[in-house]
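Exam review. A common question shows you a sequence with its structure tokens and asks you to describe the fold in words. Practice with the pair below. Do the first one on your own.
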Amino acid sequence: MTDSSPSASAPPPPEDLGKAPSPAPQGTPRVAVLMATYNGASRLQAQLDSFAAQALAPARILVSDDGSVDATKALVEDFGAAHPALGVRLLAGPCRGAAQNFLSLLRQVPEDVDLVALSDQDDVWLPDRLSRAAAALEAAEARLGAAHPVLHCGRSWECNDSLSRRRLSRDQRRPPGFRHALVQNIAGGNTMTLNRAAWQLVAEAAAEAREVVVHDWWIYQIVTGAGGEVLFDRAPLLLYRQHGENVIGANRGPRAKVRRLRHMLSGGFSDWNTVNIRALSASAPRLTPENRALLEALREGRQGSLPRRLAMLRRTGVYRQGLEGRLSLLLTVLLGRL
């Protein structure tokens, strides 16, 4: 896991968000930004402007729109005309929801791209969002080799709709990995950047997954399942708006805890796991032998008798973050809701 910078504890001053990017030195990675949009005009311009303000400028920005009827497409087209060097392309989305829109985007990444960064339509990136990821991925490739899939993700400033009242998203103390990814996601899609080996892996697997719960959780599962490495950055990478139209928000506070408990008791979490297991099984040849066996042990043991379920929990070693996460996982196993 990467560590936080000394400046991670304080929000950036507003003027820092509008700085123009420095010219990229020769040999810097070519980054493609993938953004799925749908009727996001009211908050989109700030996100687009933050792309232009990156210290490491994107080489391409692919925007897949799911049939917006507001000004979303016009804003993207105007931004592309104003910033021709950023390679903005507006694509027609599959109109099957955000997850499928991102999977469609991943299958359309040009081969000349080195890194792929995912973006939501309503956030604001900090100016070092891409440069931090690129530096971390470069260091990981120097250690592991360029053929090793590596995913960079991290924390964010959770904000209200006006980007004020900021608080840091949760830190993650236990290491990321497939045993964790099977039952919990820590990799927020809006903070994800993938090296070439990772985005090519995910793009190929995306053609095999008919349905996923959410794209970022599935990406975390595929990358770790294939033996890839996840770098969790403790420094915030963006301003994460919380508003009534979030597909998935920060999921914190008493109300969120009640929703999670109801979702688990009603069998919703079990349904999610069924979808995830099916999607991973479709790409089983891409998983390491150890992780294929782990997936099969989870599939076979999660709905058996109580002794069998408890044995599965011990044998697989799946885990969630934090005390609440550990207790909720145990409860799902005890109640047969895993």
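Now try the second one, then compare your answer with the model answer below.
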Amino acid sequence: MSSSPRPFFSLAGLRYGARAALPAFPGFIMFATAFGTAAAQKGLSLAETVGLSIFVYAGASQMVALEIWQQVWTPSTILTIMTVTAVVNSRMILLGATLQPWLRHEPVARSALNLFLLTEAGWLIGTRYHGEGGRDVGVLLGTGLILWAVWQIATIIGYFVGALVPQPRTFGLDLVMPIFFSVMLVPLWKGMRPALPWLVAGVVSFVTHALVPGYGYIVAGALAGVVAGMLIK
């Protein structure tokens, strides 16, 4: 990302970011509702469920945490859940690093909030905006805040009524996020060479997912993409 002109922050950017996130709402609602339902079925209290969504705010990690959730905790199970969720979420380190040129002049508190609220959808919206010449950091924060709020509301709805909602596949809702990402990526196309790291990441993730159980494919794909990008440059 270019550092010129200098990034700035505005309330108009906040509003723009919130509007730009609208296409991601269906996917977020579906995923958060599913989490709320799964948490209720697992026996978590409403406070525990909402607490996970508020403070962890990472769909894949929250789902993984539910899989190994215990009614009685021991040091080993606590270490296990911390390790697994950290591994699943490690991809966010790479996404956050790409925002450094954009956020480096921001106040520490606002940068920290932006990074806490960062999701793949928010990162993609912000990256596309920045790639088109935009420099208002408010866009990134506006996207993050609205998606975080949607996630909390949908989690609560899922906790109480998720079991009554028909299967998302019935209405094709499971395709919303893949379509959203595909459409958003089109303007970022700069030719085959810059796209090679993405292709490598996708292939490695797919192969790892097929051969290795668990969520290691997320980390494997991310690291493969980074290595491919470094080699190409």
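Model answer, second protein: The chain has a mean pLDDT of 83. The CA atoms of residues 205 and 217 lie 5 Å apart. Full marks require stating both points clearly.
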